[in-house]
Amino acid sequence: MLVRAARRAAVASAAAPRRCTARRTSTVGDNRVVRLQTEDPRMSKIVIHNGVVYTSGQTAGDAGDDIKSQTQATLAKVDALLKEAGTSKSHALSATIWLKDINRDFAAMNEVWNAWVDPENKPVRATVEAAMARDVLLVEIQVTAALDKNPFEDLNY
């Protein structure tokens, strides 16, 4: 299946045991679409198509009430999603960041972002102010990345 070997390698290299996630595969034209972490009735957390990994927006309202803590926890979730998909932040193509209060939190969020991002492989990025789905949320981050290798390399059909 698509990214089978990449997922096996990611799972094998994980230090902690990983929970099994739902997976769905469909075909769009000649390209397979793989959807991971599909338990939520509204969305998949990861979609892989044509060598590109799309993640859903991640938040961390339970990480504290300051922007630095929430940004660090949110980026840790992004790292975990990218790893499960078979890629990493070094292959990030784009990032969209939504801040509840851009005037108050932009500089502090950037400090955390700058420490996280691969300085040799920075993605394009947009940051905007937006109303959040829950009052406790200060930041939401969505990342799109390329797979580490050819997604069709291990297909058996």
UniProtKB/TrEMBL annotation:
TM region(s), chain numbering: none
Gene3D superfamilies: RutC-like
Family the UniProt entry places it in: Belongs to the RutC family.
Protein name: Uncharacterized protein
Organism for this UniProt entry: Pelagomonas calceolata
